[in-house]
Amino acid sequence: MQVVILDSAAEVGEYAARTILRGVSAGSIKSLGVATGSSPLAIYKVLQRHRSPELSALNAFALDEYVGLAPDHPESYAAVIRREVTDRLGLDPRRVHVPDGGAADLPAACAGFEAAIRAAGGIDLQILGIGRNGHIGFNEPTSSLASRTRVKTLMSATRKDNARFFADASQVPSLCLTQGLGTIMEARKVVLVAQGKAKAQAVARAVEGPLASMCPASVLQMHPQATFVLDREAAGDLVLQDYYRDVQRETSR
To answer: Catalytic residue numbers?
Structure first.
């Protein structure tokens, strides 16, 4: 696991976006896993400034979706991905895949989403944020480390955190579809971004704590190419900050 500590939230977005752009330019990234929430937004804004035919030809796969929100609901992840990713990057909407939270048969929708990933040749780079309880995607604590795309019940803390996007907390759905931890681990590369003091404890548990389902992001300790890109506040609880900075200096030479 590589840990990159930068001075500001803006630098986090720039660094992660540059990683993606290098992969797209080299032809190693053709399918991108995209995340919603506040943390990845800076990435998409940087990518928008560097739009190219190669970037616009990407396949994109969303991490998750609420159950029961219509795709045109402004806070459905289908709508968020359309605004923040598809439109910004000029992607072909037919190449952008979001789990169908309105399907009559939700398990079948999850299986279909997994099949779409396989048909695209897998995800080359998966963007992740991290929840304050250590969730990635909507894999809440105690999620199976081998789980696949499935229906999950959201914890009250997650619904409370996401209430800022809705008129009030009662409008936040209690169920979602999410890529499983096993699905995420099959991405060839993973870039997790985190900014702010509120994420510091979760980051420390994920990077330096035990591998445990109580901190789902800790599964990334087992990924061969996982990078955590953090601002100073999000890295604030890491014990080995000096070491991670030493590694950064050595690898940047």
So the answer is: 64, 133, 135, 140
